[in-house]
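Researcher: Next entry in the queue.
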Amino acid sequence: MTEHPPVLHVGWMPRAVAALAREGAEVTCVVAPRDAAAARAGDTVARTVVVPDPASPQHVLAGLARDGLPLDSFTRICSVLEYCIVPAQILDDLRQATTPTPHSAGGAGGGGGGPRAVRMLAMRDKALQKTLVRRAGLPVAGCTVTEQPETARVPPAAPRSVLKPLDGGGAKNTFLITGAESLRTAVTALRKDGAGPWLLEEYIPGTEFQLDGIVRDGHLLVLSVSRYVHNLIEVHDGGLVAHIVLPPARHPALYTGARALTSAALKALDYPDGPFHLEMFQDGERLVFGECAARVGGGRTDEVVRLAFGVDLREEWARAVLGRPPALTREPVHPDGVVFAGMNLPAPPGTVRRIPSHAQTLARPGVLQAHVEIAPGGLMPDITVASHLRAGLAVVSGTTEEQTEQRVKDLAHWFFTHTECEQHPPAHPTTPAAAPAGPAHPEAAPAGSPAPVAAPAGPAPVAVPSGPAPRAVR
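Model: Structure for this entry, 474 residues:
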């Protein structure tokens, strides 16, 4: 029996941790940021792991992985805290079921939870994901996990950086940091919504793409490369959430590079089977890994890929889950002479009084599919908060990329200006919300500044709070 058995206690309970220490245990304690200082101050805790929520098994696994602590390095995982008892038992059961393998010893930062748990963890935790991709030698943003982002040194002329949650989504609570003032404002906003830790990472310029497809037995069966009409960074400045599938025959070099980057990234993340949704930046000649999720892309990505390549991503996902061979019998081919795009339908915030119907939207040039998700009387959220907020979805086509992009922008402008919402009394000074015809290509704007947004041609939109908050970014 180990003289000083290594024990993991989930949550901060000083008397319980002290009791374990008196019995000779070497205690590692998983705590929330508010308890980190107290846990580190005494002599009963050998190591402290800080996570957003100790009651979340995912957060605990991610924190352990980031700190290089496999579950099987502990002889017991326990807790006496009400909301941590069940998560601790789940983790202890997983610990007992885990058998060391060459992969689990060297993967996921030394973190563990069994190969499957680690695999999914790497597809969710942004810090862990970027660490693994960087180890594989792929271009990726430099980043660090921080409990106290307000102490970060930001020189006046520092390059732009990004502050965001470790496992966020939809660009929510993600901020562009351009100096000390924007950092202070971002931290104030973040602390109202959570306690951290957060990810502070390098800002990557260039054009943003979304890569969607299927991997089976480590081999790419489907790869769709889409260019965002505006980088997701622009959503908070009125940019469109829309993507255009690029035909492979017209972009052979881009597809070759994207295929190499995706294959290497999925291998580094130990994700050999299932759908993927990966974001990539093109910075000059360099392709840079952004993030990757183990799922089908949001919005109408599944329909756009089906139209462009004749592949049902959700059917292929189901076959992978059930251990069945893929339905694909050959490499999918993109049809000539047609280009497809998926997009969010934008609308001003407030209580909806009038909004285009499904039939009216479907009658617009190039619209193949349309789904209006909000009706008169419903409350329309502020779509600049996150990329998943919308009034509806549409799939658009054209004969060229240029025509398809113009149809997307025209549809967005038409839908926005034909939607009337009752303005709610603002809590802060307001500025008019422009119809999201969208900024020009981001490279056309000065570094760090939003590109201009076209003004609406229809009825005046409602005013939305502007306030002092910095721009949030993906």
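Model: The first helix runs from residue 14 to 22.
Researcher: Noted, moving on.
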